[in-house]
Amino acid sequence: MPVSRSSSSPNTPSTRRFPACLIKPSLGALPYPNYWTDVTAGQSQVTILHGTPIVKHNRACIELWVTMKVPALNPNGDNMVTLIESNVLYFANSGLCKRNVEYWNVLMGAVRPPPGWGQEQ
């Protein structure tokens, strides 16, 4: 679903409207240290694989395949989960990331990527 903007102030991030199923976006760099401290607190045995980034103009896309132990998310068996994630990054002229849109799916258990995953075709 595309982002809609308020007609009174079409270019300000605070006027963006998101579907109810999406988490309100963080603006600026300040929220991230607390977010990462909180979200990773119950994780251990983390393994991250990343595919070959696709870069065009001011955008880049990358796929991640993360396996980790998260007892709160998977309390049965070995507590392992697999997070399959794609990130679309938008860069400012300064080279800093100005927007990160991520899509992810969680699977229970440690799942390996298929052969050839993450390679540029």
Overview of this structure, please?
This protein is mainly beta. It folds into two domains: 1-41, no CATH class; 43-114, Nuclear Transport Factor 2, Chain: A (Roll), CATH 3.10.450. The chain is 7% helix and 40% strand. It is built from one helix and seven strands. The chain has one helix at residues 31-39, and strands at residues 4-5, 16-17, 44-50, 54-56, 59-69, 80-91, 97-108. Strands 3, 4, 5, 6 and 7 form a five-stranded antiparallel beta sheet that branches. It has a two-stranded antiparallel sheet with strand order 1-2. A hairpin with a 5-residue loop joins strand 6 and strand 7 (97-108). The longest helix has 9 residues, at 31-39. The protein is flat.
Q: Describe the global form.
A: flat
The CATH architecture of the largest domain can be named as: Roll
Given this structure, which CATH class of the largest domain is correct? Alpha Beta
Indicate the CATH topology of the largest domain. Answer: Nuclear Transport Factor 2, Chain: A
Gap between N and C termini: 28 Å
Tally of helical runs: 1
Helix content: under 10%
Main sheet overview? 5 strands, antiparallel
Mean pLDDT: 79
Total E-strand runs: 7
Q: Strand pairing plus helix content: what structural class? A: mainly beta
From N to C, what is the helix and strand string? EEHEEEEE
How many separate domains make up the residues? 2
Uncertain stretches of 5 or more adjacent residues: 1-20
